[in-house]
Design a protein that fits this description.
- It is globular, with a radius of gyration of 14 Å.
- By secondary structure, it is an alpha+beta fold.
- The chain contains three helices and five strands, in the order ααβββββα.
- The longest helix is centred in the last third of the chain and has 13 residues.
């Protein structure tokens, strides 16, 4: 199997990647934190901070960037999308599930 095929498979089908969501996020420079209600992954760079916050009670997540005191959404790379999908799977969240 080619490297491109392996990367495509792992990005598009996180079931094929045996690493945990935490490991996938850490591979992309994010730091894990968890409390009773949320799981948060944070990546801090020189002039901005990205956060992906999973709300365990609402079966939802936010992807936010803080830069110069302004909070806004930001673009998600495919490797981060794979980590998000893996985290949803680990939380047993399913398509169509709404709480």
């Amino acid at each position: 199997m080619s490297i491109d095929a392996i990367l495509r498979t792992r990005i598009l089908d996180p079931k094929k990647d045996e690493r945990s969501a935490k490991e996938l996020f850490e591979d992309n420079g994010y730091v894990f934190a968890e409390d009773e209600n949320t799981i948060t992954y944070t990546r801090t760079k020189t002039n901005y901070t990205n956060k992906i916050i999973f709300d365990k009670n609402k079966t939802s997540f936010l992807a936010l960037q803080e830069k110069d005191g302004v909070i806004s959404p930001y673009n998600i790379r495919m490797s981060i999308l794979a980590a998000i999908r893996k985290q949803c799977k680990e939380l047993n969240w399913h398509v169509g599930q709404n709480q």
